[in-house]
């Protein structure tokens, strides 16, 4: 019984560390500004994607933001990371991490 007592502070530290670490992921998602993301999407993404209700024109071969948001594997964090990585199908917009997070938060709000 006495041998398990010294482990207790270690377990407490591990739990505290896990709580702190997990809060970083959620705090960054909560800090994202979906309204700013909507503004950015309308300015930069609407030439190819349907980004909002009432938009009448977009490229036929790209998904709407609503369809992206409704994908079963959708994750705002993964989408933000995807937006930061240049790819051949999308124009290379110089997005900051904050802007990518804001656009991802806007798309998540469409679910």
Automatic annotation (TrEMBL):
Where does the Cytochrome c domain lie? 32-111
InterPro entries for this protein: Cyt_c-like_dom, Cyt_c-like_dom_sf
Q: Where in the sequence is the signal peptide annotated?
A: 1-31
Q: Select a single GO molecular function from the record's annotations and give it.
A: metal ion binding
Ordered alphabetically, the record's keywords are: Heme, Iron, Metal-binding, Signal
The molecule here is called Cytochrome C oxidase, cbb3-type, subunit III
Species of origin: Bradyrhizobium shewense
Taxonomic lineage: Bacteria, Pseudomonadati, Pseudomonadota, Alphaproteobacteria, Hyphomicrobiales
């Amino acid at each position: 019984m006495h041998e398990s007592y010294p482990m207790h502070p270690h377990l407490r530290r591990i739990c505290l560390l896990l709580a702190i670490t997990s809060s970083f992921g959620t705090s960054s998602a909560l800090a994202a500004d979906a309204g700013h993301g909507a503004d950015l999407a309308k300015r930069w993404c609407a030439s190819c994607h349907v980004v909002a209700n009432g938009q009448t024109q977009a490229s036929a071969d790209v998904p709407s933001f609503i369809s992206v948001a409704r994908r079963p594997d959708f994750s705002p964090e993964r989408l933000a990371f995807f937006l930061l990585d240049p790819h051949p199908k999308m124009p290379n917009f110089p997005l900051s991490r904050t802007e990518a997070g804001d656009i991802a938060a806007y798309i998540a709000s469409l679910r």
